[in-house]
Amino acid sequence: MTAIPVGHGAAALLLICDDCGRGYGGDNGPEEWVVLWHRAVADGWTGRDRPIGPHRCHSCAA
Fold first, then answer.
1. Torsions phi, psi of 25, nearest 5?
2. H-helix segments, the chain
3. Quick one: pLDDT band at residue 46, thresholds 50, 70, 90?
């Protein structure tokens, strides 16, 4: 799927798994894509390192 802006002023990004729809991020306030992606990869997410995806959460990537 993609990383989408969430919240008022679109300050935060939410990463969405292409397989199950699980979200990651979105609650840490302003965050650049690169920071969000590095955190997601450290937590087991896989996929293309671009906001447009595809992305898979740690469960679907296993």
1. 85, -155
2. 33-42, 58-61
3. very high
